[in-house]
Amino acid sequence: EILQQRLRSEQLTSVLNHYHRLLSHAAKLYNGKVDRYHGTGIVMTFGIANPVTTGHEALHCLYAAQLFSGLVTHLRETDTQLLPVEFRMAAHWGNVLLAPVTHDEHTECNMIGDTVHWASHLADNGEELRLLASQTLLDHLPEADEIKWQEGPLISDLHGGEQACYWLQELSEKNHQLIQRQIRHITAMTEQA
Known about the structure:
By secondary structure, the chain is of the alpha+beta class. It is 44% helix and 24% strand. A hairpin with a 5-residue loop joins strand 7 and strand 8 (162-170). Helix 3 crosses helix 6 (173-192). The model has no long low-confidence stretch (mean pLDDT 85).
């Protein structure tokens, strides 16, 4: 809202598109898909095309979030002209419903359901550039994979029950180093463009 008040519509579109490209890079590298804006957020999905999941989708979600966070941090450190946008990130696991919006030859769908709502609710309770993950997501990680978590807030779910959530502290050293290399590669590509 603050950006809407400070910027002309063309400038706001340019700023949001810049961040959207970073998010798209992170999603693409980890087999995710950036969906449309939902309210004040963007939803990134993993494993939508596969009816059989392996749990790697949950890992890919974490990796993409860390990559995006690193790209935003780098951008803020190097481009003082770009206005900062606050990002609160959440990770959740579950089924979504695809509701058709148009019925022509190019049907588009909106994602709806408790999973989308709960992910949004998690993000609303999040903090700037920290990933808040649901217990459900953690339950679907294939292995501990040396990921470190910090206990997060208890958040009321849609039915009034309290759900445990966790802050991502750090990935395994191997995955952290990989993401750092990806950040350097992507930022080098975008700076040359």
